[in-house]
Specification:
The protein is mainly alpha-helical. The protein has seven helices and no strands.
Length: about 150
């Protein structure tokens, strides 16, 4: 296929593609992401009020609870609908990562626990963990040298 024909095809296709409403998409992402964060704050307050956690120690169970809620909503097919509506507003918080891992596990469950669920679930998580660890290491080295220079 010639280059001219490819360009003509791309131009023709553009006529039929819907134009995304960027402002509305940003607004939906902002609202849903804010609601997820508000839910996290409410859960944290619950841990602090009813289980006598302090603000610092309530963070871990709050994140674990958000991950559990996200995994359950993914299993019931609800989180995918939230994601279609909100876009990045549901993908950026930790709940989006939990959704990605749960979706991968559900998609490959017919292949078995080890070769299906665990392997495919950690294909996604592995890269996030590796790059997070490497980034933390690099930031730690930079901070170390910065502190040495300040002394």
């Amino acid at each position: 296929m010639s280059e001219k024909l490819k360009d003509q095809y791309k131009e023709k296709v553009k006529e039929y593609q819907p134009k995304p409403n960027v402002f509305l998409n940003c607004l939906k992402a902002f609202i849903v992401g804010g609601l997820i964060c508000t839910l996290g704050e409410l859960i944290q307050l619950m841990y602090m009020t009813y289980f006598n956690f302090d603000e610092k120690s309530a963070g871990n169970p709050t994140v674990a609870t958000l991950i559990l809620i996200s995994a359950l909503l993914t299993g019931f097919g609800i989180y995918d609908k939230i994601g279609q509506f909100a876009g990045a507003g549901s993908a950026v918080p930790v709940t989006g990562f939990a959704n990605s891992m749960t979706s991968a596990a559900l998609e490959h469950r017919s292949e078995g626990i080890v070769l299906g669920v665990a392997t495919n679930m950690f294909k996604l998580a592995g890269s996030v963990i590796v790059f997070g660890t490497v980034a933390a290491y690099i930031v730690g080295i930079i901070r170390f040298f910065f502190n040495m220079a300040m002394k």
